[in-house]
Amino acid sequence: MAIALFLIAHSTLAVFFQTFFLHRYAAHRMFTCSPRWERAFYLLTWVTQGSSFLVPRAYAVLHRMHHAYSDTPKDPHSPRHASGFLSMMWKTKERYHNLVIRKETPEPRFDGGTPEWPALDRLGDAWLVRVAWGTAYTLFYVAFATAWWQFLLLPVHYLIGPMHGAIVNWCGHRYGYRNFDSDDDSRNTLVFDFITLGELFQNNHHKYGQRPNFAVRWFEVDPAYQVMRVLDAVGIIRLGEKPSRARRLAGEEASSTAGPVATTGEA
Predict the structure, then answer these.
(1) The whole model's pTM is what?
(2) Does residue 77 form part of some domain?
(3) Of 187, 188, 175, 201, which is closest to residue 19 (Cα–Cα)?
(4) pLDDT in tens for each of the 267 residues of the chain?
(5) How far apart are CA 203 and CA 190, in angstroms?
(6) Total domains, the chain
(7) What angle is formed at CA 181 by the lines to CA 179 and CA 184, rounded to 5 degrees?
(8) Does 262 fall in a domain?
(9) Among 45, 55, 78, 134, which is disulfide-ready with 51 (CB 3.0 to 4.6 Å)?
(10) What's the angle, vertex CA 57, arms to CA 51 and CA 61, rounded to 5?
């Protein structure tokens, strides 16, 4: 029971801060918050991602490139231009690392406007620190695992950050339905995205890149956005685009198509 609770808690929190802070804040600035809350969210992103911490600036730049070049040869992580899942992950890892060490200089339009905390970035990206987090996860399993096969779950803890991104970009551009026609392969994989907390509404998100609610149709649920609504209501964050107007516009666009325009399968 302890292992199950730890796995669920760690993966859910890590995924939440990846979509909430790295994606919706660092990359898109879908909401604003005070400098203190920004630092708090930055710290919580490191704590929850642990051994797989992703530097916000590098993540944001890579993601902005993805939107600009979605499913073209310039896309840093497109299934269309990868020989397989692992190949896409490795290509993404190389581009990400080059951005972290500033070996790659992105176009000016992709850089800037991202939260930065150089000291925490250096700490979180240090291999000694990553190994320390991984050791902590392993020791927890040593203390509480009740069967040998439970140790096979450890890679999820070690690599939750990049695994989450790879699942979103692979599944979200290969499997599911489409509310909107587009030149890329983006799809909505789940109607209730309990796995990546809204990230698998890729077709909706690529249509309305600045909309904080990734769900569009009445039956779609974006769990992370519901948390953001609460944070907005209590004054911790301020959503940049109020959902009512965006939902109406998106609903009109969605209703202009005769339901989903593509079914599950390869792009």
Answers:
(1) 0.88
(2) yes
(3) 201
(4) 899 999 999 999 999 999 999 999 999 999 999 999 999 999 999 999 999 999 999 999 999 999 999 999 999 999 999 888 888 988 899 999 999 999 999 999 999 999 999 999 999 999 999 999 999 999 999 999 999 999 999 999 999 999 999 999 999 999 999 999 999 999 999 999 999 999 999 999 999 999 999 999 999 999 999 999 999 999 999 997 554 433 343 333 433 333 444 433 433
(5) 11
(6) 1
(7) 110
(8) no
(9) 134
(10) 115
- Judge contact between 200 and 176, C-beta under 8 A: yes
Domain containing 218 equals 2-255
In a domain, 196, yes or no: yes
Among the residues of the chain, which ranges form H helices? 2-17, 35-49, 56-68, 85-100, 118-125, 127-144, 154-171, 202-207, 223-233, 243-255
Residue identified by tokens 């995924």 is 15
- Displacement of CA 157 from its chain's centroid (Å): 16
Interatomic CA distance for residues 55 and 1, integer angstroms: 32
Separation in Å, CA 36 to CA 40, 42, 124, 241, 255: 6, 10, 19, 22, 41
Give domain status of residue 175, yes or no: yes
- Pair of tokens at residue 193: 């995205």
Residue 181 CA, chain-centre distance (Å), reads 23
